[in-house]
Design a protein that fits this description.
This protein is an alpha+beta fold. The chain has 17 helices and 26 strands. A 4-stranded mixed sheet has the order 2-1-3-14. A 4-stranded mixed sheet has the order 8-11-5-12, sandwiched between helices.
């Protein structure tokens, strides 16, 4: 562990010795600069090593090998291409790029190595959504003094400074959950037809009529049609017009109105564009055409529950992460249906070609330079980055041209671009519907603060007033967080914001105690350890062990019945939630074990040690209904997975009072 330094860190650390570094991120075309005379003179000297640290070395390092086989990971044609790129960089800049793997979480490694005066590398890729946590440590080198090297279209400032090397229009980025719909459901709505022909969302978009009010009207017609129609898989559900994760609707409405939570111009939460978008979402909710799976008494929704509804054919429209669309399309295909996609509608006051009408695009990985890299190396590292990505993009484009590869249109996986009526329209619309990154709130850590305020207001949760009133009262939650980090970034202080980790000494231990146990008689501290990334192992006896939610006089299972918290020397709090079981020690009844009605066969040569026998059991409970599946044991003495056939596997479970139940599981090896 690194010894923690809480003193102000001087920029003099920049001259410290550097470790060697690692790989690179998603494809991004940089600005390729012509080598200067100074660069040409350097060719006479020994090459400068620029280290590059990241999480996907195998995609950029032609010399990366499989740790087991010792073979090169990269395809041979890609290896040749990247070797040539590295040779050209050495020729032009007299630089050798050295790649290494990241030895841990990026936010921990950067903090440790910058505090030690020995940053992990000259160039570092930040994992998706890690940027906010790392910026709040103040371990990154601001690049404002080198902005002329960042190209013609540098990434916008965050917290008032340039930190990211990739350009605004390149690097890893993705549109937040797009608006998707079931094409067949729309085609079945008579109210959406004119002269017997369905008016699709793509028709309205191309006509310039795809507006907030039109979408609301469109949803009302759909809602009326499906008001009493049972869903295909779960008839207890009806088919909704628009069941979604409403926070996605909020962010899409904001960007369709030319706004952002935190955009190119910084924090924008208090703008008319944002307030108008929230008001529109409120209209949809009040009109009962937007529904969501709200947890009672809150404004929270179960993670991805709307995707489950959409996949089961229970809603016409939803918003869904792009990576889920393939699965949704497969489910729809099983019902003989297909999916469409459409940009979120624009506000009625905005023209179709208004540049403010955009999708919500957030950043993926970013590349940065940590503090402690020498002033002499910083410009060279930037030039190396630009040259590496510029040459990679050019080489791939040239190879694609030589192979006659056609540029793929910008469509979303799983959508029916071959649909006879709207397939070509969807492809055309999405080929032009793109935007550089315009939403930074997710990676800066204020997205959910904003959505919590907006969500409570929209659904009336936690006695929240309307959004305008609620936001005025609570916006300091966001502005204080942003202001605090901006202030930190204008100092030399390095801030430890990494919480310590709390672990059970026995990872599989279940905290089960007899009813009537005095919790003060239990030495909880002997069951845990706590380790901090900077302070090392902490004194676990100083942790707080909270068992307030557990009634030790009542049999039952208590979720988060034991909550352990501890602070490191920087007052970061680590937390561990643990379930507690209170059982009847005098119980003499045999537990109940029930097999699933349907379960899989075993495969020939299947490794028995890796079989999860719980997958074959529906329930295993004691007389009080306490789950004891964790005690499941399979007798494999008669099982031979090298031979096809029928086998009987005795399964036993033991409850916490020591009572045993057995059932025989018939399995097939095929």
């Amino acid at each position: 562990m690194f010894k923690k330094s809480r003193k102000v860190m001087s920029l003099a650390m920049a001259s410290m010795v550097l470790l060697t570094g690692c790989a690179a991120q998603g494809e991004a075309k940089g600005t390729v600069k012509e080598p200067t005379k100074e660069a040409n003179d350097k060719k006479k000297e020994a090459p400068t090593v620029i280290t590059y640290a990241c999480v996907n070395r195998d995609q950029k390092d032609p010399y990366a090998k499989n740790a087991i086989t010792g073979e090169y990971i990269m395809r041979e044609d890609d290896r040749d291409m990247y070797i040539q790129i590295l040779d050209e960089i050495k020729e032009e800049l007299n630089v050798e790029i050295e790649f290494i793997d990241f030895p841990g979480y990026v936010w921990e490694v950067l903090l440790q190595t910058v505090l030690s005066g020995d940053p992990i590398a000259d160039l570092v890729d930040l994992e998706i959504n890690s940027q906010g946590k790392i910026l709040a440590q103040n371990v990154l080198q601001p690049l404002d003094d080198y902005v002329d090297l960042l190209g013609d279209n540098p990434s916008p400032k965050v917290y008032g400074k340039h930190f990211f090397l990739e350009s605004a229009s390149s690097g890893e980025a993705w549109s937040l959950s797009p608006l998707v719909y079931n094409i067949d459901y729309i085609e079945a709505v008579e109210g959406l037809k004119v002269d017997g022909k369905t008016v699709y969302p793509t028709d309205l978009y191309k006509e310039g009529n795809w507006t907030w009010s039109k979408f609301k009207e469109y949803l009302k017609i759909i809602d009326a049609h499906y008001a009493n129609v049972q869903a295909p898989e779960r008839p207890e559900y009806r088919i909704d017009a628009f069941r979604t994760e409403y926070t996605e609707t909020i962010i899409e409405a904001i960007h369709s109105n030319g706004g952002a939570i935190y955009g190119e111009d910084g924090l924008q939460v208090d703008t008319p564009e944002v307030k108008q978008a929230i008001a529109y979402v409120q209209e949809l909710i009040d009109a009962k055409v937007l529904t969501a799976n709200i947890k009672e008494g809150t404004s929270n929704t179960p993670w991805a529950s709307n995707a489950e509804n959409f996949n089961a054919g229970e809603t016409v429209f939803t918003e869904m992460e792009v990576w889920r669309l393939g699965g949704a399309a497969s489910k729809a295909a099983e019902r003989g249906q297909s999916l469409g996609v459409i940009p979120f509608p624009r506000p009625d006051h905005m023209a179709p070609d208004d540049p403010g009408y955009q999708p919500s695009v957030t950043k993926g990985m970013s590349t940065v330079i940590p503090k402690g890299v020498s002033e002499e190396k910083i410009p060279l590292a930037i030039q190396t980055y630009n040259l590496f990505y510029g040459k990679a993009a050019d080489a791939k484009a040239k190879r694609a041209e030589e192979l006659g590869e056609v540029k793929q249109q910008h469509t979303l996986p799983g959508t029916d671009i071959f649909h006879t009526e709207i397939g070509a329209d969807m492809a055309e619309i999405y080929d032009s519907w793109s935007s550089p990154v315009n939403e930074y709130s997710i990676m800066l850590g204020v997205y959910w603060d904003f959505m919590s305020i907006a969500g409570d207001a929209l659904w009336g949760a936690n006695s929240s007033p309307s959004f305008d009133v609620a936001f005025e009262a609570q916006k300091n939650i966001i502005t204080d967080k942003i202001g605090g980090i901006e202030a930190l970034l204008n100092t030399d202080e390095i801030k430890d914001n990494v919480s310590p980790a709390i672990e059970k000494l026995a990872a599989d231990e279940i905290f089960a105690v007899p009813v009537g146990t005095d919790p003060s008689s239990i030495n909880w501290a002997e069951k845990f350890k706590a380790v901090d990334n900077l302070d090392g192992e902490l004194d676990i006896t100083k942790a707080v062990f909270n068992v307030e939610v557990t009634d030790f006089n009542t049999v039952g299972e208590y979720e988060k019945g034991l909550v352990v918290t501890i602070q490191d020397l920087s007052e970061n709090t680590g937390k561990s939630n643990n379930n507690v079981i209170v059982y009847d020690a005098n119980n003499k009844e045999v537990p109940t074990i029930t097999l699933k009605e349907e379960y899989r066969a075993l495969t020939l040569e299947e490794e028995t040690a890796k079989i999860n026998w719980n997958d074959f059991v529906e329930t295993a409970v004691d007389k009080d209904g306490i789950n004891i599946k964790s005690s499941l044991h399979a007798d494999l003495s008669t099982l031979d997975t090298t031979t096809k056939g029928e086998y009987e596997i005795p399964l036993t479970v033991t409850d916490f009072a020591g009572n045993v139940a057995e059932v025989v599981l018939p399995v097939t090896v095929e």
